[in-house]
Structure prediction request, 655 residues.
Amino acid sequence: MFEAALVGFLKVFAWPALGYMFLGILIGLVVGILPGVGGTFSLAVLIPFTFKMDSSSAFALLLGAHAISYTGGAITTILLNTPGDPPNAATLFDGYPMTKKGEAGRALGAALSSSAVGGVLGAIFLIMLIPVMRPIVLLFAPPEFFMMAVVGIAFIAVISGKSLLKGLIAGGFGLLLGLVGLDMSTSMERFTFGTLFLWDGINLVPVALGLFAVAEMMEVAVEGGSITEKIVSSEIGGVLRGIKDTFQRLWLVFRCAVLGNIIGIIPGIGGDVACFFAYGHAKQTEKNRDDFGNGAVEGVIAPQSAINAKEGGALVPTVAFGIPGSAGMAILLGAFYIQGLKTGPDMLSSNLWLIFSMAWTVALANIIGAIVCIALANRMARVALLDGGYIFPIVLLLSGIGAFCTRNALGDLAVTAIFGFVGYGMKKYSWPRPVVIIGLVLARVAEKNLLLSLRLFHETFLLRPITILLILIVVATLIFTLRGRRKQA
Amino acid sequence: MKLSFRHIFNLSVVVLLAVYVITAMGYNRQARLMPLVISIPILILAIWQTVLDFTAERKFKEPPSKTSARAPEAPAAAVGEVNKELRVYLWVIFMFVSLYLVGFIATTFLFTFLSLKVRSGFSLKSSLGVSVGSLAFLYVLLIRGLHVDLYPGVITLALRKAFLGY
Prediction:
C-alpha cells in the first residue's frame, strides 16, 4: 500500500505527466470561468487527446482540468453573480453580496483557499477510503438517497431568508420545476405543453443564469453605476484576509469537505447537491447565521470547501465499482477504457498506484490552481468597480452562451430569458432565489428514489437504520430552524 | 383598491401554481402523485401570501398628506423608474431575440456595441474596442480553441440554405 502511494506520488512529478497536469490546470481554469462550459465539458473535450498517452499522463491532463474547473467557476460567481457550473450556484448566495459590500477580494481569497483545502482533503479521504470503500458504498440504496434529498429540501426552511412563507413557496416552485419532463416511471409527459425540448426537463444552469446573472444585470442597468462603489480593504489585503478567514475556520472547512466527500461517494445523489448541503449545514451551525445571504464569509467557505472535495469522493465508486458518481466521472470512465484499464475491485490490486497517482494529481492541481488564481485575484476583484455599462452586455452575452452550451438547445436561451425576468421580480419583491435552485436540484432525486424505495421495500423503507438517522436529522433541522425563527421574532 | 406591481407578481405566482395543479390533475395516478403532493400546499401558501400582502398594505397605508411638498414628486419618480425598467427589459429581450435571429457571433458584436454606444453613451472608440475584444474572445477561445458549436441564427441558416445549399 505504502509502496503504491509512493509510486503514485512519484509518477505525478515524472515528465511528461507533470507538464500535462499544468496544461490541464490552465484549461480547467479558463473553462471553469466560462458559465455553462464547466468541468464535464473540459473532460469531454480533452478525452480524444489522451488516446496516445500513457495512463499517468492521460489522467494528469484530465484530472488537472477537472479538479480545478470549479475553482475557476467561483470567480465569475463571486464577481458577476454568474455561476460557472451548477455547484457554483451555492457560492453566489453570499459571494456576490460580499462583492456588493466591497469585499470582492476577501470573498475570492476565501473561496479559492477553501476550495484548495477542500480539494486536498478530498484527495486525502480518497486515499484513506480505498481499503474500506466497498462496504460504505453498499450501505446506500434508494431509501437513503430519498431521505438525503428530503434533508436537502428541509434546508429550504434554513436558508429561506426573512420570510419563511416566501421561502417555502419559492422552494416548492423549484421542486415543481424539477418535475417538468417525462415521468420516470410511466414516461408520461408532464408540463411539457407539447414541447419536445421540455421532455428532458428544465436544466439547472439556464435557470441559475437567468435567476442570478441576468436578473442582477437588469438591476445594475436600472440602478446605474457599478456593482460596488467601493473596495473596503486594499485588494491584496482583502485576498489575504479571505485566506486568513479560511484558516481561521478550518473546522468548518473540514466538516464541509467531509460532507462533500460523502455525498460525492454516493452514486445517484449527484455532486451538485453537496455544495447546497454544505451551505445549509454552515448556516445551521455557525454563530452568525443571520448574516448568511448578506455576505457572510462562512457562506462562501462552506460550499467551496465541499466543491472540490466531492470530486475526490466521486472517484471512489468510479474506480472501485465502475459506477460514476457524477457526470464528469462518467466521462472519465471512458478514459479508463481508452487506456485499456478495467475499473472495479481488480483495479484496487493491479493498478493501485494509478489510483494514488490520481489522488495526488487532484490534490496538487487544487493547490497549484488556487495559487494561480490567488495571484490574480486582486486584479480580478477590480471588475466589481467597472462601470455597469460595460458589464451589462458582457455578462448578458456570457449568460446566453452559458445557457446554450449546456445542451446546445435554443430552448435553454428562452429559459434563461424567462428566469431573468422572474429573478428580477423575485429580487425586487424580496422573494428568496437560492431556494428555487435547491428545489430544482432535488426534485428528480427525491421522486426517482421515492418510487424505487416504494417498489423495492414498500413502506418499510422508512425503517432502515440510515433512513431513520436521516429522518431524525430532518426533524432536528426543522425544530432548530423554527425555534431560531421564533427567537428572532 | 389599486393593484401594484407587487400584487401582480404575487397573483401571477398564484395563477401559475393553479395552472400547475389543474394540469397535474389530468395525469395518471403515478405521474401526478409528486406534482400534486407539492403543488397543492404550495398553492395554498401562495394564496395566503397574496392575502397577507393585500391586508398588510391596507393596514400600514398612511393617509396622503396634503401639506407634504414632496408628494407630487413621488408618482413622477415612480413613472421614471418604470420607464427605466421597461427600457432595460427591452434591451434584454433584444439580446435574446438577436441571438435567435442572427446567432452568437453577430449578436456579440452588435449587442455589445449598441449597448455601450446607445444605452450607456460611451465613446465610439471604447464601444468599438470592447465589441471587437468580445468578438475576438468568443472566436478565439470558444470557436477556435474549444470547438464549441455556437448557434448561427435562423437568418444565417436560411441564407446559407438559399445560397450555399446546406
About this structure: Chain B touches chain A through 58 residues (CB under 8 Å). The helical segments of chain B are 5-25, 29-60, 73-119, 124-145, 154-163. Chain B has five helices and no strands.
